[in-house]
Specification:
The chain has a domain of about 120 residues. Helix 1 packs across helix 4 and helix 2 crosses helix 5. The radius of gyration is 19 Å and the shape is globular. By secondary structure, the chain is mostly helical.
Length: about 180
């Protein structure tokens, strides 16, 4: 039964995850909470681990949830289920690419999806930021956490202003770790 739930849950995530892995985080959260596999704290920890380990966040999260619920078989099933829709869509689109991509209706629809995807990602980031600042399990509200978040946002904004590109997530993780080490001694 757990294998079927993992397959069906992560197949839904894979089908609805327009906008990439970060847009999939709310869907994964909803599925995991719906089935009662993990609680909010564990989900936040999975997100942090998935972002800091090699590989796509969505696949890392599916693999981790699958492993915690069904061992190696669960990890394999959840990971396979989450990538099936992308694999199928990629194969179909590659076959239709020439006529498909230049169709003005398709281009218009894709332009309409972009703000929606950006909004989903921004809202997810804001919710994660607010929860990380206030979770009792992580020490509750803290000026240190707020300071680290503010410094990271300022560093990213300054870097973008002068370099016209985003700072590497790895650099942000290193900066956050150094700030945590200095401020939390």
């Amino acid at each position: 039964m757990i294998y079927w739930q993992l397959f069906w849950g992560f197949l839904q995530v894979g089908c609805l995850a327009f906008g990439g892995a970060y847009a999939a985080i709310p869907f994964i959260r909803d599925i995991v909470l719906y089935y009662g596999w993990l609680d909010e704290t564990a989900i936040a920890q999975i997100i942090a681990i998935s972002e800091s380990t090699p590989g796509p966040v969505m696949i890392n999260m599916a693999t981790y949830v699958g492993q915690t619920q069904g061992g190696f078989g669960g990890a394999l099933i959840a990971t396979t289920a989450v990538v099936i829709p992308s694999f199928v869509v990629t194969i179909v689109i590659m076959g239709l690419l020439r006529s498909f991509i230049y169709n003005r209706w398709v281009r218009t629809c894709l332009r309409g999806l972009l703000p929606c995807i950006a909004g989903i990602i921004m809202l997810t980031g804001l919710v994660m930021l607010l929860k990380s600042l206030t979770w009792p399990e992580a020490g509750g509200w803290s000026g240190i956490k707020l300071t680290i978040a503010a410094v990271l946002i300022a560093v990213e904004a300054a870097y973008y202003k002068y370099k016209h590109t985003m700072l590497s997530p790895i650099a942000l993780i290193v900066i956050a770790a150094l700030l945590g080490a200095v401020l939390c001694r």
